[in-house]
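step 3/5: co-fold with glycine
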Amino acid sequence: MFDKDVYVRRRRTLLERMSSIPEGRRGIAAFLGNAEAPQNYRGNDYRFRQDSTFLYFWGIDEPCFAAILDLDSGEECIYGNDTDIDDIIWMGPQPDVAGKAERIGVSCSAQYADFDKAVRAARSQGRTVHFLPASRYYNTLKMASLLEVPAECIRKVAPVAGGHGCCGKAVSASEELVKAVISMRLIKEECEIEEIDKACDIGYLMHTEARRGCRPGAREQDIVGRMEGITISKGWGVSFTTILSQNGETLHNHSHGQIITPGRMLLIDAGAESNSHYASDFTRTYPCSGKFTQKQKDIYDIVESANELAFSLAKPGVTYRQVHLAVARHILEGLSGLKLVRGDVDEMVAAGIAGLFMPHGLGHNMGLDVHDMEDLGEDYVGYDEDQKRASQPGLGSLRMARRLQPGHVVTDEPGIYFIPALIRKWKMEGTGRDFVNYSALESYHDFGGIRLEDDVLITSDGARRPGSRRLPIKSSEIEEIMEKEREIL
Ligand code: GLY
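step 4/5: write tokens
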């Protein structure tokens, strides 16, 4: 948790940003923190994770809190339940709601059920209720019930101050609030950058442990357990479900049942959350034998230089779409050198041929969420009036296309994958037939995939990689360090 002043300032800024709505039409902004979510029976809950926007403005990292910011008067109130004797028996003594509110600079506090009354009262007075699309179903259903609209209205984002909305009622998640929140959370403050640095340092240790564990005969699951143990002991836990597999061509592979086998590669995409819930997200791909085959190295070096190229281009004023397209071009040039594609590189970029090999975008925003704020709408976060989403393979999947500004934190994660089903589909449909050397690709069907990911903070004059150390990435460095580590252990 940050100092009280941080939360007070953020709420003042939000109030200012919402003040473009004409007076009298502003209404209230209602914020719901998360509730507990049972794994199976009530009382055996998943580990509690607070809603990130609630954390950002209200800081309280506990279940069943809510808050209201009155956009006309500037008054604010925190809602939660004081503990009773039963809670104290099971969870120990806790500060009361007023004490928790005071800690974040809020002088009004009330019980959780009073939040419902306050929202209903605002509605009955004809005031606009601004709220965000909830990532959790419980909160979606709670807002739907409070506002007496179907749940789909609660998930849909639309301008609400002018009385629009969905389902024939002036109710939906508020585009005005979504845009204001995103405009703030996209630009990381110094205290947030310190947390991201911490998360990256934990991520470094996780990946180092994983690389050391990557040796023939080891079980993928053992490596996952060892690396996740590090983030639990040093931070809050993983920032997303660990992706670790020798089938790296499956972009998000969460099955870890295989034995590390010489000749294959192990793709590890994993990150940590700091205790304040800021994320890191790194990917490395290792040769299971400790040395790359020439065929693996040829592809690896293209991906590694693409990662470096993206970092060198990322600076204020450049759009991340431009960086993605430069990477797409670089990958196609590399594959052209290996005779896997042929023809004019610019024509290939324009035709989206890179999407056969890298079907995802170059990166996403990162902060309190590993895909920061995508619960508020991917297009609201990664796009704006300046940048609209494309439909091309690869580029169409880009989650962050905006013009970069100091304080943005994005991932730089190029990859090359040989996905047999996708190659067969393109070939059968005749897609890219003028450019793709489908017969040469036959011998790559069992290659797997390579992705190399770092996190990048945009600074006033360029960029830096958060964290105090960068994971080794060059193929020569990887081979050298793996050889040394195998001698020691
Ligand atoms: N690194 C995991 C993801 O971006 O979804």
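step 5/5: annotate
The mean pLDDT is 95.
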